[in-house]
């Protein structure tokens, strides 16, 4: 199995085939509308507008598994994102990214790039402290830790990077830009 063998359900119930993105750079992200990281939508949309015509795609998968921070239905989530962040990239049906009910796309992404830490800084320390209370062994599994975890896929379908929500969005864009040039 590879990235292009996978699909994800759109809000209308149809399947978005990852094979449609062959030859493109893809950023897959689990999102939330009521999270401290929700402002990531702004730089995500800016990247989409900047690189989309050159072959960059974002696959937005809303998820309510982290402190119930995505409580709305698909229509409400879409309305929130377009009104507050003018998002234009495709938004999928709300889905689970961890556990037995995790969608296959995220099972695959996690198998390709495991958790490598939150980095340094105040947000990283806060995330570590919070997660230690939830799962003492969180550092040793590949599960998604929180909203706005991002997976970067190159033009050949290789999962080349995983960015935790604490990652600097400028670094994410830098990696996207490098792959766009490759």
TrEMBL record:
Pfam families: GSHPx. Keywords: Oxidoreductase, Peroxidase. SUPFAM superfamilies: Thioredoxin-like. GO terms for molecular function: peroxidase activity. Coiled coil: none annotated. Belongs to the glutathione peroxidase family. PANTHER family: GLUTATHIONE PEROXIDASE. This is Glutathione peroxidase. It comes from Agathobacter ruminis. The lineage of its organism: Bacteria, Bacillati, Bacillota, Clostridia, Lachnospirales.
């Amino acid at each position: 199995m590879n990235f292009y063998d996978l699909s994800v359900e759109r809000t209308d119930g149809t399947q978005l085939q990852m094979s449609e993105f062959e030859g493109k750079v893809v950023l897959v992200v689990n999102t939330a509308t009521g999270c401290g990281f929700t402002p990531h939508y702004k730089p995500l949309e800016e990247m989409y507008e900047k690189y989309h015509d050159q072959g960059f795609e974002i696959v937005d998968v809303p998820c309510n598994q982290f402190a119930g921070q995505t409580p709305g239905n698909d229509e409400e989530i879409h309305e929130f994102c377009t009104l507050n962040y003018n998002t234009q990239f495709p938004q999928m049906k709300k889905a689970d990214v961890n556990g037995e009910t995790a969608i296959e796309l995220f099972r695959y992404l996690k198998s390709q790039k495991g958790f490598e830490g939150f980095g340094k800084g105040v947000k990283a320390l806060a995330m570590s402290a919070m997660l230690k209370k939830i799962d003492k062994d969180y550092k040793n599994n590949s599960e998604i830790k929180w909203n706005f975890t991002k997976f970067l896929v190159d033009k050949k379908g290789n999962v080349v990077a995983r960015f935790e929500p604490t990652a600097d969005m400028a670094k994410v864009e830098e990696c996207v830009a490098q792959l766009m040039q490759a």
